[in-house]
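Can't paste images in this forum, so I'm doing it all in text. The chain is below; anyone willing to post the predicted structure tokens underneath?
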Amino acid sequence: MASASGIIYASFDRFPSPKGAAVHIRAFVEALGAAFGGVELLALRDGATASTTPSPLVEGVTYHPMEARGRDLVAQALSFRTNLAAWWRNKPRASVVHVRSIFEGYPVARRKEALTDKLVFEVNGLPSIELKYHHPDVADDAELMLKLVAQEDTCITRADLLITPSEVTAEYLVKRGAEPSRVRVIPNGVELEVFRHAPPRAWTPERPVRLLYSGTMTSWQGVHHAIEALRLLRAELPAVLTLVGPLRKHQRKVLLDRCGDLLLEGAVELREPLPQDALAALHHDCDAVLVPLPANDRNCVQGCCPLKLLEAMASGTPVIASNLPVVRTLASPEEVFLVRPGSPKAIAEAVKTLRANPDLGPALSTRARARVERDFSWRRAREALVRAYEELGMTRKPLAMQPLNLEKTEPRA
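Text version of the structure:
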């Protein structure tokens, strides 16, 4: 068998982009490139006009933009697998293959011995749970769901290392058959130099309360609870809600219908995804950030590590978030205002409580920032990832080959 070398990091995600997945990917491949070198990043190019030419990303990392054509997710996933196989042909075995989903991971898991010494399966979400939220039309396709679960099980059982950002997800993976010794929890991080801390704005009766929701504009993330909380607030005081995130065509129609007259009144602002520095600045222009995750299987069974929660905590803007285990593992009631999940009324009451108690927001702000600096910097996440790879048997490249600027700025999306 041919000797193995290098790391292949494959992801069925668009890169680069403002989305949290792309931020996560960049942080991880930068860490692997700096520590070990020889990293090949294979990810979807961000848009039809983006270059398909391989290019250096940072020292030790080469980015290979990939295609995924098709009218639906299944067709795109199959196209991505075909393009990955074409890229891989006649290449030597890798020391490590790192995958982020079954869409690229399943073919690797099946041929693991031929392709790599070690397989790393990074689990941020599993399609058997998440797909019905993104594509409701597949929820009743029992045959497809059985295939998804079988492919997930193959990746889970064949992986030498499973990485997840959530304690809740780690517990779920063990229930699905993963050996606890192979599971590592590495929470998401925050770009501390981008999401700089600033004290909360002073509440004044002269201006409307300004709220922020960023992320996926779907019910499983709770955007509808944020909108309904705004309606309740506006019955008593002026308020504006800014919604930032990607919107597919059908999602836009649903969201516009839900907002209705609020849009006409200028009470809801819709914005496309923003670069990290622009999003950080928007945090400081708002009075509170909403993270209204509902109690569903995606949030409570599978688990998640909401990057928007950590970024808001870092920025200093008071956070109102659902009182769920995935939130409590990241923030205590002394750091974030926790409310009953699925309750727009509880969100509205929290806003009014913050407004009526001017010392509460700054206290939450200070403690939240301290928690993020201690536990959730990207530097901490990168160090944890490198340690996990060393446990797999990877050896750091000689110190003379490593970048000298160990205190470099956190990566931007």
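The two ends are 39 Å apart (CA to CA). The domain at 7-189+377-401 is CATH 3.40.50.2000 (Rossmann fold).
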